Amino acid sequence: MEEYAQLLKQTEAEGCRAAVIDVNQVRFDPVFRDACAANACGNYGRCWMCPPDIGEIHELIAQASSFEKALVYQTIGELEDSYDFEGMMDAAKAHNELSIRLSTLFKEQGFSKILHLGSGGCHVCEVCAKRTNEPCRRPDLAMSSLEAYGVDVSALARACGMKYINGENTVTYFGALFFCP
Ligand code: SF4
Q: For the chain, how many structural domains are there in total?
């Protein structure tokens, strides 16, 4: 998209693929919150930006749907094999660090409103303040996830011309900036 070429270039300069789409192309389904409730990541009820604390799913879908555009970005991590748990964790860490860096870039764009969703919950603090029942330490940086907002990430990848899965021994993560120009 020509009008966001500079932003896409700046985002890709951080080492990821990126694309801008209309938010009406994003598919939402409350069913994706079930993955959060299954608590495979251990953050359910233990992070201010994760369910159930982040909010009711239909309200979050309505909130995300109210934006006009979404800049979607993708990182691909290399694994030694499909059991390389350490490699997956390293790739997730690299993606989350990228998301935190991109937050600064996105805030500089002067959009009228933004919502930045990452992968698998907020990773700004090593241990979320929710675990000790304290207020969020960095509300300016805190970031929820595509999953928590019910985004169908597989459909999102297709809408952006990206692959959801990128081959044997890789792991792929997504993030998206929802914005109104
Ligand atoms: S910024 Fe820190 S305290 Fe706030 S939600 Fe994220 S991890 Fe939790």
A: 1
Whole-prediction pTM value? 0.94
Any residues with Cβ below 6 Å from ligand 1, and which? Answer: 47-49, 122, 124-125, 128-130, 136-138, 141-142
Question: Could you identify the atom of ligand 1 that is nearest to the CA of residue 129?
Answer: 3
CA angle 34, 59, 118 (to 5 degrees): 60
User: pLDDT tens-digit profile of 134-180?
Assistant: 999 999 999 999 999 999 999 999 999 999 999 999 999 999 999 99
Choose one of 122, 144, 145 to mutate for the ligand 1 pocket test, by most ligand atoms within 8 angstroms of C-beta: 122
Q: Which domain holds residue 117?
A: 2-180
